[in-house]
Amino acid sequence: MNKEVNKSINAAKFLTSIAFCAALAACGGGGGSGGSSSPASTAPASAPGAASSPAPASSPVTGTQTTPQYAANTAPLAMFNQVNAYRQQCGFPAVQQNTVLDQAAQAHAMYLGLNSVVSDTETAGQQGFTGVSYLDRAVHFGFPSAAIGGGVSANYYTNSTLSETQYGQNLVYAWIAGVYHAPVLLTPVTTMGVGEYETAIGGFPAAWGSLSLLNPSMQQVTTSGPLTFPCQGTTGVPYKDAAESPTPPNTSGAWGTPVVVMGNATDTIVLQSGTMTDPSGNVINLQLLDSANDPNKLIQPYEAVAYPATPLAPNTTYTVNVTGTMNGNTFTKPPFTFTTGNIVG
Question: Residue 259 in 3-state DSSP?
């Protein structure tokens, strides 16, 4: 299976905080659902913006729904549910559907499909153009301009017959398996829009998906040290990802399940050590990536990622040990176990 991946970072000024903005385009990778050897393609996109002022609970914005209103058995509902399943099992606040962000995400998904491109940005004059960045597109549809966050975009196709739910889940698998993309799904904002548009390749659907995670404020996620994903008891996560652009440091091919370490918007996370141990007792030394050592300057100060430089095994339980500092204070996460599934990103 193959996938394409895009990632960018977008942010607006958050209250009185320093505005942050960066961009990354043209990523590539490999992935899809386990158990299928058919060609496939997928592509993620962006990361959250940074904020240096206190992170209060997100203020209500127009279009936010208390329960998701996506139609049953659709890719958008599957994408929304999969993101929340990942977030909530590890203590991250759930996202709520926002219909304004839905419009922005749907418009971008259509732009991708109409132009057969995978990109975080749009070009004026191209079919379906509604704004260059995730924030531009959200504002176009009426979202507050003083918003912070970002989004992800992807294309997924296979010559196997899949359900709409499977298409949506495969898009999310691609994002959660990326070293630079997994933190996006866990960003401390709690409003999200989902878009999905289908074309055809070889008579099978090609699903173009996009998520917009934006809010005027960031949500506090922890009061007692950073959270992680995966966390104790997580199951069924992708066991490898084949490529990402930029390529995660110190990899020469596919890598294994990344462990995201996330604090609040005002925190600074620095990793000091990280290991995974397989059932046979083999210890895997993890690559450590935070804002202090990220050569691509995409990891935000309040997040970090520890990842194996080679693939893990499917359907296998690993024990994780991670240490570091948060705001200069040492933390040691209690050892936890998670279990991979037979799926790849």
Answer: strand
Upstream peptide bond of 238 is cis (omega within 30 degrees of 0): no
Model confidence over 134-148: pLDDT tens digits? 999 999 999 999 998
Cβ–Cβ under 8 Å, residues 177 and 61:
no
Q: What is the pTM of this model?
A: 0.84
Whole-number Å distance between alpha carbons of 181 and 184: 5
Give residue for tokens 């659709």: 74
Residues 6+ apart with CB under 8 A from 80: 68, 70, 95, 97, 192, 194
The whole-number average pLDDT for the span 75-79 is: 98
DSSP label at residue 92: P
In terms of Cα–Cα distance, which of 279, 220, 314, 301 is closest to 22?
A: 301
Residue 282 contacts by C-beta under 8 Å, 6 or more apart in sequence?
Answer: none
**How far from 342 is each of 1, 84, 98, 168, 173, CA to CA, in Å?**
13, 21, 32, 17, 11
Structure tokens of 215? Answer: 């809010």
Among the residues of 237-340, which ranges form H helices? none
Q: Do β-strands 96-97 and 191-201 pair in parallel, antiparallel, or remain unpaired? A: parallel
pLDDT at position 247 is 87
- Rounded Cα distance, 207 and 158, in Å: 9
pLDDT tens for residues 24-34?
Answer: 222 222 222 22
Q: Report angle CA 289, 259, 163 to the nearest 5 degrees.
A: 125
